[in-house]
Each structure stands twice: as structure tokens, then as C-alpha cells.
């Protein structure tokens, strides 16, 4: 039983003059109120109240403790009210982790605009393709692309996204268009190396099952933006996110292949640790990103 409930029950019994009246106010039984008082007295090791058929009477220690308990409850309620009032104040220091390329293009620039709305807020960004431990490393939130499975985190979808195989029209004119996953072995696949964080390869959906294809070619690296630029130059084909290439697809600079095997959801999500009260700085920034990302035409810029 928590101490707050014990203190509140003791004060209520003392003020109402009986377990029955206090129980009615708390919407519990008199037995429950009695157990709460017993628990408080046992923990403190003192008798706070004499109980008899003629009624309840505070002991000398009980009289002294009653005033202190009332003050403690008042202080607690004031602290909680202050915290609740502060939930809508965007201020303090917001620390955000995001994937490197995505963060450079779609998080940090928006952070600057967001800060103009809330000048009392300090923003810090860590742009890395490594998955960070938010709690241990002191982050308020992170942007993740793809599935979030950690039960200690809350995930909020910001925008839809897919991973697709793409290349320039000129590349496919020279080398042909892959028609099945096995054809990828005949193409120059521009992929992450072991340091790039995709050891399982490119993921696809085939016959209702998730499969991974080891893709390789004459160039690899550990930087997604470099891979993106190589694909745009026609040096090979890549497995890229639609957030990254939406504009190029619309302009015809890149085309996608093997779409029937694409994993349907590789969404952009905001994640933060489970907590009772979500700070306004986190809540408002998530809402701002979500609204911006879902503005028509945003990803085609």
C-alpha cells in the first residue's frame, strides 16, 4: 500500500470521526479503511488512534501527526498541480536522436522552425544510424524508421514509408529490369557493408513470408546518403526508403522495380520511454513533425 493512501485515509478518518463516514467518502468499506490505518501504525511503530465502541480518539502522537500529515498531503497536491500545469509549457532541453540522413533532411531543419515557435526551448540532435538506448544515454525521444519492438518504448507513427528497389531509367536500359528476387544476383546492388547496420541484407515479402536477400556489387559503404547519391548517378540499384526518393520518382529520375515483393510498412515513427506524464516539449514536437510530414507534397520537395 502506498504511503499517500495511508496518510490520506488517516486524515480522513480523523476528520470524519468514524471509519464508516471516511469509508463512504472514499467509496470503500470500513474494513479497508481500518486496514490502511493498521498498516500506517505498524510502519510507524506507534499508536495514532484509540478505537472503541464509543468512538475514535487520537493519541497525543496522533494529534501531532495529524497536522504534519495534512501539510504533507497539501504539499503533494500542490506539487502534482504544478506538474500538470507545466505539461503545456514547451521549455527546457529537448534531446533527440535520429537516423543520420533522415535527421539532416527532415528533423534538424524542422527543429529550427519549431524553436522559433517556442524560444524557451533548447534543442540537441544526435544524428546516427546506430540504435541508441534512450534511457541510459539520456534522450527524450528518437526517430526510428521501421518496426519498433521494445516494450519499454511508446511508438507514434509520423508518416508512411516503404523500402523499394530503385535505379535510374538509364541503368535499367543498359542492364535490364529484374523480374524476380533471384535476378538481383545479376545486378550491381549498392548496399551497406557490415559497418552500415544491415547484416541481414534487403528484406522482401514473398509468398506471405519475410525473406532477406544478400545484395552486393562493386561499391558498398556505411553511409545511406552516399548510397542514395550512387543510385541517382546510375552506378547501380539500391534499396531505398520512399521518403528519400519520392521527388525523384515523381520527376522520373528514378523508377522502382520488384514492387510486388516490397515490405508494405516501413514507417517513420517517433519513440519515447514509457512514462506517466509526457513532457510538453516531446508531445508538441511529435505533433509538429507529424503535421508537417503529412502536409500534401512534403515528400516530393
TrEMBL record:
- Residue ranges of domain HTH lysR-type in the record: 1-59
Would the keyword Transferase turn up in this protein's UniProt record? no
Q: Does the keyword rRNA-binding apply?
A: no
GO function terms (MF aspect): DNA binding; DNA-binding transcription factor activity
Keywords linked to the UniProt accession: DNA-binding, Transcription, Transcription regulation
The family database entries (InterPro entries) matched by this protein are listed as: LysR-type_TF_proteobact-type, LysR_HTH_N, LysR_subst-bd, WH-like_DNA-bd_sf, WH_DNA-bd_sf
Q: Which family does it belong to?
A: Belongs to the LysR transcriptional regulatory family.
Q: Which PANTHER family match?
A: HTH-TYPE TRANSCRIPTIONAL ACTIVATOR TTDR-RELATED, HTH-TYPE TRANSCRIPTIONAL REGULATOR
Q: What is this protein called?
A: DNA-binding transcriptional regulator, LysR family
Amino acid at each position: 500500500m502506498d504511503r499517500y493512501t495511508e496518510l490520506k485515509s488517516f486524515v480522513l478518518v480523523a476528520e470524519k470521526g468514524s471509519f464508516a463516514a471516511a469509508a463512504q467518502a472514499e467509496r470503500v468499506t470500513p474494513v479497508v479503511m481500518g486496514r490502511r490505518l493498521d498498516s500506517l501504525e505498524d510502519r510507524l511503530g506507534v499508536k495514532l488512534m484509540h478505537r472503541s465502541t464509543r468512538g475514535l480518539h487520537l493519541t497525543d502522537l496522533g494529534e501531532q501527526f495529524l497536522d504534519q500529515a495534512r501539510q504533507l498531503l497539501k504539499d503533494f497536491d500542490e506539487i502534482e498541480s504544478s506538474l500538470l500545469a507545466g505539461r503545456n509549457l514547451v521549455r527546457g532541453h529537448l534531446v533527440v536522436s535520429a537516423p543520420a540522413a533522415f535527421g539532416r533532411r527532415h528533423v534538424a531543419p524542422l527543429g529550427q522552425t519549431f524553436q522559433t515557435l517556442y524560444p524557451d526551448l533548447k534543442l540537441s540532435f544526435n544524428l546516427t544510424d546506430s540504435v541508441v538506448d534512450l534511457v541510459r544515454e539520456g534522450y527524450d525521444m528518437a526517430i526510428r524508421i521501421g518496426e519498433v519492438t521494445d516494450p519499454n518504448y511508446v511508438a507514434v507513427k509520423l508518416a508512411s514509408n516503404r523500402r523499394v528497389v530503385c535505379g535510374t531509367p538509364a541503368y535499367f536500359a543498359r542492364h535490364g529490369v529484374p523480374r524476380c528476387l533471384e535476378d538481383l544476383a545479376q545486378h550491381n546492388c549498392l548496399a551497406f557493408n557490415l559497418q552500415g547496420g544491415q547484416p541481414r541484407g534487403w528484406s522482401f515479402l514473398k509468398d506471405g513470408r519475410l525473406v532477406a536477400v544478400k545484395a552486393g556489387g562493386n561499391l558498398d559503404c556505411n553511409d545511406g546518403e552516399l548510397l542514395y547519391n550512387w543510385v541517382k548517378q546510375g552506378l547501380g540499384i539500391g534499396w531505398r526508403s520512399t521518403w528519400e526518393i519520392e521527388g525523384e520518382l515523381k520527376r522520373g529520375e528514378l523508377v522502382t522495380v520488384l514492387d510486388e515483393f516490397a515490405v508494405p510498412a516501413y514507417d517513420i515513427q517517433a519513440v519515447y520511454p514509457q512514462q506517466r506524464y509526457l513532457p510538453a516539449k516531446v508531445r508538441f514536437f511529435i505533433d509538429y513533425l507529424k503535421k508537417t510530414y503529412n502536409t500534401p507534397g512534403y515528400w516530393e520537395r
